[in-house]
Each structure stands twice: as structure tokens, then as C-alpha cells.
What we know:
- Chain A has five helices and seven strands, in the order αβββαβαβαββα.
- Chain A has helices at residues 3-24, 74-91, 106-116, 129-133, 161-170; strands spanning 44-46, 53-55, 64-69, 96-101, 122-123, 141-145, 151-156.
- In chain A, strands 5-4-3-6-7 form a five-stranded mixed β-sheet, with helices on one face. In chain A, strands 1-2 form a two-stranded antiparallel ribbon.
- The radius of gyration of chain A is 21 Å and the shape is elongated.
- Chain A starts with a helix and ends with a helix.
- Chain B folds into two domains: 2-102, Cytochrome C biogenesis protein (Helicase, Ruva Protein, domain 3); 109-165, no CATH class.
- Chain B is elongated and about 90 Å long.
- Chain B contains six helices and no strands.
- Chain B has helices at 2-10, 35-47, 65-80, 84-95, 110-143, 147-165.
- Chain B is mainly alpha-helical.
- The relative contact order of chain B is 0.12.
- In chain B, helix 1 runs antiparallel to helix 5 and helix 2 packs across helix 3.
- Chain A binds chain B through residues 8, 11-12, 14-16, 18-19, 22, 31-39, 41, 103, 127-129, 131-138, and chain B through 2-3, 6-7, 10, 13-16, 18, 21, 52-53, 65-66, 69-70, 72-73, 92-98, 122, 126.
Amino acid sequence: MNWKVLAVGALLIIPLVWVLAMGFGKDPRALPNVLEGKQAPGFALQTMDGDRTVDLAELRGKPVVVNFYSSWCVPCAQEHPWLVKVAPAYQARGVTFLGVIYNDEPVKVKAFLRRYGEAYPTLIDPAQRTAMDYGVAGVPETFLIDAEGRIARKFTGPVVPDQFLAALEALL
Amino acid sequence: MTALLLLLTLSLGVGASDAPTPLDEPPLTAPVTDAAALELLTEQVSDGLRCPTCQGLSVNDSPAEGARAMKSRIRELVAQGYTKEQIDDYFVDRYGTWVLLSPPAEGRHWAVWLAPVGFLLVGGAVAGGFMRARKTGAGAETASVEPEELDELEPWRQRILAELERP
């Protein structure tokens, strides 16, 4: 047995296998989360009905849930009824829930809300400016903003109910 | 060495600081008003940024809605006089260094730039060792041919030479 060849081979192959193992264990679409703990980017967006503008700065002092979604997104349709169900109890405790349309048309979103329920305002995000400010790479993405206006938690994909509720309770 | 480089490479794009976003700062250059220059600069910046909803495509190359919105945002920022570095920082602050198609040559990102050199050196050393061993082996093989064996081959050699000389 040539131990030198074996050692060089192991030196080359073990890191390669390790890299592949690490890579296969991760969701290739999951982006690094760089916004948690940072000040939430401000926004002042109109509601879908155009009846008022919601300014994030005015909501300081209480937690805020911001959910980016689209009517064409299947996971959004899966999580939306659950959010609609839990929202009222938390709204009564001072939490503001906001939906933000991502790459969609209000008329389609209205149909989506009629079908899956509506418990909080949905905002229009012209040119996806706010989505970009929040580093949104797909929908749904949900941000929990604490009373000091910092992003406490980001959920990529549909919210995991237990984790979402635990993270929200921690902000109250 | 290789393992260390790979370890460093894997840890890319995780850093986060609480620095203010570049858009809280004023643009570093004068507004760009010339349409051709604006388009050229927009494409240069878009070429270096990754489309968040695609697989390995730049913002400039992607037809996805998200990439088009990003390009439109880049065009606005370039027009206002923001530099490539400022715009890159804006997106890195939100998406992480993942959004850069070429990681910056600084800090631990050096690993990405140095890893190929490391692989080249290791590969060169292995290839060099292999060729040296082959050369030594070939020499030993030639030296091991006995004179009697050469005598045995002589009739064959003569026959080949005769065949070659035939018109």
C-alpha cells in the first residue's frame, strides 16, 4: 500500500465529499438572512383600496408582521388562511399585521382574498421597491418587526406555525 | 490547506453589520443624464448582481420580473449618481454577499480567489510526482533488458528494416 498516495487522495477527496454533503443538506434557494437584528427599512405604502397610506414609522412601539405574498403563489395560498385565522387574536393584543403584494395585480389579489379570507390590510408596493428593501427573493416571505422597529425574525416560505407563534409571543 | 480553503469558502455570505445603508448617504458622483452612458453603467452594475429568483443568472441577463425590477432600481440609482460600489452595497445589505456574482477580493472572500491557485499547486505537485515516477520507471525498464533478449529480437529488427527499404 502506497501511504503517500492514500494520504494525498484522502486530502483531496474528504473535503470534496464534505462540501457536497453540506451542499445537499441545504436548500439551494435559501438566501443568507442578513436583515435579522437590523432596523426594518421604512415604508409608506397605500392600501389596495387606496383609502389610506400605512407608514411603518407610525407603528413603532408595537410588533408588526409584514407578509409579502402573491395570488399566483401556491405556498401563499397554503399559509394565508392560517394567518387570517391567528391574526385577530394578536391584533387585539396590539400587533399590526400587513400584507404586501409582490409582483401581482390588485384585481387578482382581491379575488385571492375573497377565496382565502382577509383579516388585515394589503399594501401595494410599486416597482417592488419595498420588497427589494427587505431583500425579498420570492414569496411568501414574512418579517416580524419588534416594538423598536428591528427585524426580529424572517420566515422564507410559508410560516411554520409553532415557530411563528413562539417568535411573535417573544415580542409581546 | 485545501480543506482550510474550502472551509473558508463555505462560510461566505454570512456576515452582517449594522452599518447604515448606502442609500442613506448621498450619491458620490454627479447625476448621469446621457442616455447611452446611463444604459452602459446600468448594464455594468446589473452584470455583477445575481438575480434572486433565478439559477445562476445575472440581473442583466434575466427576464424574470424580480430581476427587471432590480434593474429598473439600478438605473434610477445610477441616474442619481450612485456608484457601482454604493449600489452593490445597497443590495449586499439586503441579500448578503450571495447577491454578488464575483465575491469581493477582501477578508475571508480571498479564499474564493486563492482556492483555484491552491488546487493548481496541488494538482501540479501530483502531476509532477506522477511524471517523475513514470520517468524513473521507464528508465529502470530499459536498463533491465538483458543482452540475450536483444539478440533474440535482432532477426525481427532486421526483418522490419528490410520491409522499410522495400520500394
